[in-house]
Amino acid sequence: MTLPTEKKTLLKNGRVIDPASGFDAIANVLVVDGKIAAVGAAAGAEVADAEVIDVSGCLVTPGLIDIHTHCFVGLGDFCLPADMMGVHSGVPVIVDAGTAGATIFGLARRAVIDHPDTKTKVLAFMDPCQIYLANKGYICHQLEIAADLRNLDPEVTLEALEANRDVIVGFKVRATYTDNPKVSPFLEMAKEIGKDLPIMIHLGTFPHTPVIDYHDLLDALRPGDIITHAFRGGGGQLDAKGEPTPQFISAVERGVVLDIGHSGGDFHIPTALRLMERGFRPNTISTDLNVFNVDGPVFSMSTTMTKIWALGASLTEVISMNTVGAAAAIRKSHEYGTLGIGRSAEVSVLRIEEGDFVLTDGHETMRTDQRLRAVGCLRAGEWFDATHDRIRMLEAAE
Q1: Bond into 297 cis (ω within 30)
Q2: Which residues of 126-145 are buried (b: 16+ CB within 10 A; e: fewer)?
Q3: Distance between CA atoms of 332 and 211, rounded to whole angstroms?
Q4: pLDDT tens for residues 132-159?
Q5: pTM of the prediction?
């Protein structure tokens, strides 16, 4: 009888940065049967039968996590393929941020998350409404069902949550209101059902359906809840003098998570710079990639990381935001965010490129002489080239 052989992969001679452990050195990463087996200068040196991937001159990090994407292709016309934003951008783990409501979440799961062609690990924030789908025309807002109490059914939402707890990491709430402009019943129901889960809130407005005031929204958030688009302009973070508002300060002090959620117009370079100068740094970097922004200004995760780096965060901080910070935000630190021995081998490889680069938030621009570009990643030990990121970075430079 022939015994199965172990599959071994060696990432060789990269600069391994693992913020969770404080490791930062030229080292190897050995993966055996999809698990991290060893990290260090001598890791895998004596393994003769490993597939060797030479990553000399590259950064090797725990697998990057994008906690705000829209990947449920087929539900409307707003989403992008999971693997385009995921493994083909050097990002082995992505999270869909509320594309689907409770009654259609199972369909989205079968179509994308569980589909055999999907190579990226896909998790999700579910919208608590019975019917919600994100599309180009904001149809749920045009029809005003995103602000209709008849669209809330706690039993339906709880049933969908319990059936999909292995992939649902929380709720994505559009904080619309009905009769009381200070209270969103959609946010309150999500808080009641998801006592043990984070709620990601959209900081901003929608056409046709009003949302509660920014300051009331900030006051309503619990420790561990997530503000996506937290560095957009006009989001109630800064007062008329350009100083952080009491509501924003209070939210951060009690543990509310600040997420980039770049999108096409929900990241503002001057606002981000002001907040970072005042000590309010992102906990997580996400893209909010969708059909509106993939051709600019977002392009990819590595482009978004480059912007935060250019705004003054250190390289290690930027990597931490997409590994330690992102894993903690979705309550998955026991699975992702570090190169721990025995963990599933989610590993990202990036390259630092030197030059004269112009970065944009869609309106404002800034220049930098360094940018990050994804080379590839391991997802459960399987290597994927970052083909999408390579194309997008070349286009962005033109």
Answers
A1: yes
A2: bbbbbbbbbbeebbbbeeeb
A3: 30
A4: 999 999 999 999 999 999 999 999 999 9
A5: 0.96
